[in-house]
């Protein structure tokens, strides 16, 4: 039997239930993995709340790490005992064991420890595609990255500095500002006490930045547009503060012929080749020392409710993982 977290209705953290299920044997193209790390990401709260609808009842979680216990017919790339991870679903990662399609799994390199990637993979893969494909960051680019001390932001700041960018990071507290500075952010703006648009314009001598990476959403949307320079790119990749309100496309013209994209990790890893390329980029960044993963905040799997409460209350600095 496996311990899993499931929801039977949408709502707040308390709708999550701890259940025992019989995982069974893997079918064609599947493997069964015994999980040691279940990653917790903000998108999980959207699935739980109903912001991103899922068929109910449902598990939660898109990310996990563990060991292959059994493989079904047709699986040739993986062996029993292989350490593997995934970060693009399918949903159901909050589990001590699960069945999953082998094509979704990435074998971990021998030089990457479990704790270096467990709970970090979805965020790290997101950063990889954002900085290398959504907007290929070049040396000398001045970049605005919101929530620079969050689990994803900490990875992004390090990676941006490795690429030679000038990093402007926003945070919500003095404590988080210190985290962003230690990671290498050139300019840190506490948006709870400062106007981040005014500060960005001061830093850039009124020119604005060529790209804004915004995973916050509603609270920073309008200000983010105002931080962009002529023909700048707004990368809106999350809704931590809520959905952006509908807007007239003409606002992009009025603010300087701006570009807008709303990317997702699923779109950038839709083929096996893209998935492997993205994961390989993450492993290379960690292996080279360009990006160092901080210690994830750990909760027992059965305490998923508390993990979600702390995540939504902005109490967690860095990544979060559930341990079966």
From TrEMBL:
Keywords: NADP, Oxidoreductase. It comes from the Bacteria. GO terms for cellular component: cytosol. One of its GO terms (molecular function) is quinone reductase (NADPH) activity. Residues 11-322 form the Enoyl reductase (ER) domain. It holds the Pfam family ADH_zinc_N. NCBIfam families: PRK10754.1. This is NADPH2:quinone reductase.
């Amino acid at each position: 039997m496996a311990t899993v977290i499931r929801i039977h209705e949408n709502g707040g953290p308390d709708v999550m239930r701890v259940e025992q299920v019989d995982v069974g044997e893997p079918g064609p193209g599947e493997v069964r993995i015994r999980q040691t790390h279940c990653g917790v990401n903000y998108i999980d709260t959207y699935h739980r709340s109903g912001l991103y609808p899922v068929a109910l009842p449902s598990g939660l979680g898109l990310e996990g790490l563990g060991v292959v216990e059994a493989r079904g017919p047709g699986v040739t790339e993986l062996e029993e005992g292989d350490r593997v991870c995934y970060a693009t679903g399918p949903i159901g990662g909050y589990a001590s064991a699960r069945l999953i399609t082998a094509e979704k799994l990435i074998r971990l390199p021998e030089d990457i420890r479990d704790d270096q990637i467990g709970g970090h993979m979805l965020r790290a893969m997101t950063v990889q595609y954002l900085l290398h494909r959504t907007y290929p960051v070049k040396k000398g680019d001045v970049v605005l990255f919101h929530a620079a001390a969050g689990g994803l932001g900490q990875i992004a700041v390090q990676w941006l500095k490795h690429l030679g960018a000038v990093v402007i990071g926003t945070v919500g507290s003095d404590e988080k500002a210190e985290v962003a500075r230690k990671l290498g952010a050139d300019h840190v703006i506490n948006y709870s006490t400062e106007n981040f648009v005014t500060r960005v314009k001061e830093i850039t001598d009124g020119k604005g930045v060529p790209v804004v990476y915004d995973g916050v959403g509603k609270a920073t949307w309008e200000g983010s547009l105002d931080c962009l320079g002529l023909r700048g790119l707004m990368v809106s990749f999350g809704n931590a503060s809520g959905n952006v309100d509908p807007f007239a496309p003409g606002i992009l013209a009025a603010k300087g012929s701006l570009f807008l994209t709303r990317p997702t990790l699923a779109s950038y890893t839709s083929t096996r080749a893209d998935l492997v390329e993205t994961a390989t980029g993450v492993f290379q960044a960690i292996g080279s020392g360009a990006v160092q993963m901080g210690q994830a905040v750990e909760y027992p799997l059965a305490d998923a409710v508390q993990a979600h409460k702390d995540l939504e209350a902005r109490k967690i600095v860095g990544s979060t993982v559930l341990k079966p």
